[in-house]
Design a protein that fits this description.
The chain is α/β, with parallel strands linked by helices. The chain is built from 31 helices and 20 strands. Strands 1, 2, 5, 6, 7, 8, 9, 10, 13 and 14 form a 10-stranded mixed sheet that branches. Strands 17-16-15-18-19-20 form a 6-stranded parallel sheet, sandwiched between helices. Helix 6 packs across helix 31 and helix 19 packs across helix 26. The chain is globular, with a radius of gyration of 26 Å. The mean pLDDT is about 95. It binds N-acetyl-beta-D-glucopyranosylamine. The site of N-acetyl-beta-D-glucopyranosylamine (NBG) has 15 residues, from helix 6. N-acetyl-beta-D-glucopyranosylamine binds next to helix 6.
């Protein structure tokens, strides 16, 4: 057993936090070496633009089974892991669910012993850091990378030559170890170029988008509101995919592949459309090795699989042909021939790779040239098959399959909620950490008073801790006795943070007219808006402004609080989710592919208030109607309303007085004297003139179900029972289950 003091070369009590942190990095790295990596003939390459991995210290110690010993050793010297964690920077390598899913997946792949690499890019400043100034979101670079010793990421001596944007670049590969739970390890491999220059960033996150040599990997999802920004995304996507393709072939050949048999050596998972170029690039590299193009098509199709994460058309990337001419001219002849090959087989315009406007549909390349296409929750996959991708489903009925998302319980319960984890393990043992179905053994405790009391006690403690955190970080006083009602996810109109806001305004009106809730409610929002997404930013402004209105009104403040959390990220989620009572999953039915926050909340004993969308449908089925609150139009009704163009927001606004009062409050005196009039009027206009994601039709039902949830909360024993059922039934949503299914049905490793 390794001791930390062997790595500090002086007593722990005399070591600085930096010295301790570096000692822990070295200790973990030695421990990983002792265990070794999952190896085998065939390997999974999970290529993704995002890996939202979160801080690694606790997670690695837990997975390596040395958390307890290290904690004791540190405590004996008067130090704590929690302090060192504050010192650690969270890697800024992702945006939302797609990236967090990739992070949970690499944890599960390592844990299940699958030889697997995550492959992506080493963004220097990540997505962005969110600050609120005058009630608005400001973005600044998230300098998470500390080049030096104190980083989990190490430089390797692997380099590839990549041609992009008229340059010949030489890439460098970095690696982060992925510890599996009590198993061997995997690796996250991130590519970069040495010429990146962070000094290019001028004002906030503005930089010269034309200077590829200096900007290629500065940011994840650089602002794409202009052409230079969109081109940069193409450069990034190709750079990532081309590195991956070379890595895949090199490793396969080193293991003895003659490339004709690549399928026996590599399974490539294309996470959304961003890594699509890996397909034509593999074809290019294979034909350069003497394989015919026709055979190369067959090989890539056997090797690659594609996951779709959204039905929003905007997220299915289409690049104008001249972008590719500029960025990757050597890809064009290959894509043209792929296009001709497909056009020769299928005449349906929808399935063509290049459309009449000369745009290249990345998802269409993925679907034709992968052997498997999957959605990420049952409803989502059904919608893909029945409407969104129907013409493809007609051609390839056997390619389509569902893989409902999952989360790693090591991070989202064991590490982030020790207290809950301990009372669970005291009842059913620790096997649930690796075998999530074991959680079901908790069901009988739904009637055990002692357990229910402890469960409520744990929740109370987590709420108090989170309230203290909010006070420290944002200076906002939060009453821990209030119901903690939480909506945390990317800010997007389809996720409908605005619906939740309208509910809160309605409650404000009720309180003003003398109808107080039985217990105070605190509404937490955690969300970043894409820098160029105007309406999303307007919603943030409205939420922050309304929070100020509420807190400054002495009649309302004791009963309602609205908090927009600053810079929501994985580390904050680990504190927030264990403290939640109600989990808001209120997307417009049919629009949320799955959601994974919903699973994390449930696992931590929050009760879902949601629409029948994404994985909520499966949650509902598992916990039963008594343990979830559902509302709203069904996905069928929504799909029909869009098809018929029958929705008219103004009609609802006009005919429902309390909805109208809530909407008009946005531009009323209280809001205007604190907020920005232009922004608030724009949002008001957007809602009554469009409301594209149909918040108004669901408003009444939402209010009714939220009232029911709040009333149910008052029977504390019955509520604790609901919490227990949610935890006990969460086992299905372990990413270990998801990964096992991918491996059984898709990868065959
Ligand atoms: C998100 C969906 C979620 C889904 C995750 C993971 C993107 C682009 N998509 O519903 O919105 O849970 O992907 O599959 O982040």
């Amino acid at each position: 057993m390794k001791k930390l003091c062997d790595y500090t070369q002086k007593p722990l009590s005399e070591s600085s936090d930096l010295e301790l942190f570096n000692a822990l990095l070295n200790l973990v790295s030695d421990e990983v070496k002792d265990r070794g990596y999952n190896e085998g003939k065939k390997k999974v390459y999970y290529i993704s633009a995002e890996f939202l991995i979160g801080k690694l210290l606790s997670n690695n110690l837990i997975n390596l089974g040395i958390y307890g010993e290290i904690k004791e050793e540190l405590e004996a010297a008067g130090k704590s892991i929690a302090e060192l964690e504050e010192f650690e920077h969270e890697p800024s390598l992702g945006n939302g669910g797609l990236g967090r899913l990739a992070a949970c997946f690499i944890d599960s792949m390592a844990t299940l012993g699958l030889p697997a690499d995550g492959v992506g890019l080493a963004y220097h400043c990540g997505l962005f850091k969110q600050n609120f100034v005058n009630g608005r979101q400001y973005e600044t670079p998230d300098y998470w990378l500390t080049w030096g010793t104190e980083s989990w990421m190490r430089r390797t001596d692997k380099h590839y030559d990549i041609e992009v944007g008229g340059y010949k670049l030489r890439s460098t590969m970095y690696e982060i170890d992925v510890t599996g739970y009590r198993s061997k390890c995997g690796r996250l491999r991130l590519f970069d170029i040495d010429s990146i220059d962070e000094r290019l960033i001028k004002n906030r996150i503005q930089f010269d988008k034309g200077d590829l040599l200096k900007n290629l990997t500065l940011f994840l999802y650089p602002d794409d509101s202009d052409e230079a920004g969109r081109l940069l995304r193409v450069y990034q996507e190709y750079f990532m995919s081309a590195n991956a393709a070379q890595l895949i072939l090199e490793e396969a050949e080193a293991k003895g592949s003659n490339i004709h048999d690549l399928y026996d050596y590599a399974a490539v998972q294309i996470n959304d459309t961003h890594p699509t170029f890996v397909i034509p690039e593999l074809i290019r590299l294979m034909t350069a090795r003497g394989i015919t193009e026709e055979e190369a098509y067959e090989i890539v199709t056997k090797v690659c699989a594609y996951t779709n994460h959204t039905i929003l058309a905007e997220a299915l990337e289409k690049w104008p042909r001249y972008y590719l001419e500029k960025a990757v001219p050597h890809m064009l002849p290959i894509i043209d021939r792929m296009n001709a090959y497909i056009a020769g087989k299928y005449s349906e315009p929808f399935v063509q790779i290049i459309d009449r406007d000369n745009k290249i549909h990345m998802a269409n390349i993925d679907i034709h040239f992968s052997h498997m296409v999957n959605g990420v929750a049952r409803l989502h996959t059904e919608i893909l098959k029945a409407s969104e991708l129907k013409p493809f489903y007609d051609i390839y009925p056997d390619k389509f399959h569902n893989k409902t998302n999952g989360i790693t319980f090591r991070r989202w319960l064991r590490a982030s909620n020790h207290e809950l984890s301990d009372i669970i393990s005291a009842r059913i043992g620790k096997d649930w950490i690796k075998d999530a179905d074991e959680l079901e053994k908790l069901l009988p405790y739904a009637d055990d008073d002692q357990f229910l009391t402890e469960l409520l006690e744990v929740k109370r403690g987590k709420k108090a801790a989170f309230a203290a955190y909010v006070k420290r970080h944002q200076g906002i006083e939060v009453n821990p006795e209030a119901v903690f009602d939480v909506q945390s996810k990317r800010l997007h109109e389809y996720k409908r943070q605005q619906l939740n806001l309208l509910w809160a305004i309605n409650l404000y009106h009720e309180i003003k007219s003398g109808h107080r809730p039985v217990r105070p409610v605190t509404l937490f929002f955690g969300a970043k808006a894409a820098p160029a997404y105007v309406t999303a930013k307007d919603i943030i402004h409205a939420i922050i402004t309304f929070g100020e209105v509420v807190r400054s009104d002495s009649e309302v403040a004791p009963w309602l609080n609205v908090v927009m959390l600053e810079n929501y990220n994985v580390s904050m989620a680990e504190k927030l989710i264990p403290a939640a009572d109600i989990s808001e999953q209120i997307s417009l039915a049919s629009k949320e592919a799955s959601g994974t926050g919903n699973m994390k909340f449930m696992l931590n004993g929050a009760v879902t208030l949601g629409t029948m969308d994404g994985a909520n449908v499966e949650i509902c089925e598992l916990v039963g109607e008594d343990n979830i609150f559902t509302f709203g139009k069904s996905s069928d009704e929504v799909i029909r309303a869009y098809a018929e163009h029958s929705y008219n927001a103004y009609h609802y606004y006009e005919s429902n007085p309390r909805l109208r009062a809530a909407v008009d409050f946005l531009v009323g005196h209280e809001m205007l004297c604190r907020g920005d009039e232009g922004v608030l009027r724009r949002l008001h206009g957007e809602l009554i003139g469009k409301d594209w994601f149909m918040t108004f039709p669901d408003f009444e039902d939402y209010c009714a179900k939220k009232a029911a949830a709040l009333a149910a909360y008052e029977d504390r024993r019955a509520w604790a029972k609901k919490m227990t059922v949610n935890i006990a039934k969460a086992g299905y949503f372990s990413s270990d289950r998801t990964i096992k299914q991918y491996n059984d049905d898709v990868w065959g490793v």
